[in-house]
Amino acid sequence: MSAQQSQGAALRLAALLFGAGTMHFVRPKPFDSIVPDFLPGDARMYTYASGVAELSVAGALVVPRTRRLGAAAAAVLFVAVFPANVQMAVSWLRSSKLSPAAKAVALARLPLQIPLVTEALKARRNAPVRTVA
User: Fold this and answer.
1) So where are the chain's domains?
2) Which InterPro entries does this one have (predicted)?
3) What is the rounded distance in angstroms from the CA atom of residue 81 to the CA atom of residue 78?
4) d(CA 90, CA 84)
């Protein structure tokens, strides 16, 4: 992957994270509902914290100087939010109000974390290395 492809990957991930992070504040309720039950405290706190994390990582991915760190943080973040995706799939599968198509979407989202993590790792691997002068 060239530096230009790495930049493209980083910017695509940044756009995704910026959009998702923004939605955590604009419409927090859906995110509250997928916070795993085993986490202590208020779901809204986790919704806002993950929104801040997503926005911060997006910012780090956009800036060439912090892109390497941002890409590593993105990979960690995609792994960290996976339990919420599992919680969403379980909740949606148990719901009698959702269509089979909606339930299929919830399940289909789970393996999508894999290409997100691998894309973040590629962006990290191909980001410019900052040298100390």
Assistant:
1) 3-124
2) Methylamine_util_MauE (IPR009908)
3) 5
4) 10
